[in-house]
Amino acid sequence: MNAPSSPSLKIAPGTRFGYQSGPFWRRQDRTLVQSEGAVSVGPGLHLFVAPNGVGKTTLLRSLAGLSPTLGGSLQVEGRVLYLSDELKMDEELKPGALFRSLFKGRALQEAQRLAEILNLNLSCPIGKLSRGNRQKVLLIIAETRLIETGHSVLLMDEPLSGLDAETREVVTELWADASTTALRLVILHELESVRRADSLFTICSGRLQHTATRQGQSWFDTYHALHQ
Fold first, then answer.
1. Which pTM was predicted?
2. Is residue 171 domain-resident?
3. Cystine design at 131: which of 4, 95, 108, 162 (Cβ 3.0–4.6 Å)?
């Protein structure tokens, strides 16, 4: 049996991301972001940081196959797992029961291990969890799915939203230490908690920029260097 190929993302130069507006008989493209050059990334942790409203989520949804591009081409190799920024679940359901319904064996053990690391109360109904604890449930589901699927592309839209600084640091360290068979592309609002990553995406004046080379002392410095 052939080994599964490594997950990858490739975006051709000039690929446009956005939406169409206007009546159906006169739809017009509204481009939010366009790739400046060819982008190609493989397994690892890839950060995506940019101001609000510039097209981050639209681009991520296009990579997930949920929204079409407006032009150009992209290629995604590997099973795609898309993590939105909100947990929508029966509010009476408890995280422990949810994990038992989704996972078995080693995967369930991993979900329970992550819950312990992140201090998630498995017996509290989801409807009574804080925003941060609901985010923990989403993160645990996503990371445990990777145990089952292996060579996957995990797309995460602001997964650290609502988490306290200590938990954000724990999560980013878990990502950095995790298996390199998966590709994680993560939309973030801040970079202070991220010390180790493989590359950085950002959007400058409607142009998608990407670098695998850290500038200065941190990825925070790299982000500001790209926006100068």
1. 0.90
2. yes
3. 162
Read off the CATH number of the domain in which 162 is found: 3.40.50.300
Element housing 60 (H / E): helix 56-63
How far is it, in rounded angstroms, from Cα 8 to Cα 79? 10
Q: Is there a contact between 9 and 39 (Cβ–Cβ < 8 Å)?
A: yes
> 134-188 pLDDT, tens per residue?
999 999 999 998 887 777 999 999 888 888 889 998 998 888 887 678 999 999 8
What is the rounded CA–CA span in Å between residue 148 and residue 150? 6
* pLDDT tens readout for residues 74-125: 999 999 999 876 777 778 999 999 999 999 999 999 999 999 999 999 999 9
- Cβ neighbours, 10 Å, residue 198: 17
| Structural domain containing residue 188 | 8-86+152-226
Which distant-in-sequence residues (6+ apart) come within 8 Å of 202 by Cβ?
48, 49, 50, 208, 209, 210, 223, 226, 227
Cα R_g (the chain), whole angstroms: 18
List of residues 6+ apart from 50 with CB closer than 8 A: 56, 201, 202, 203
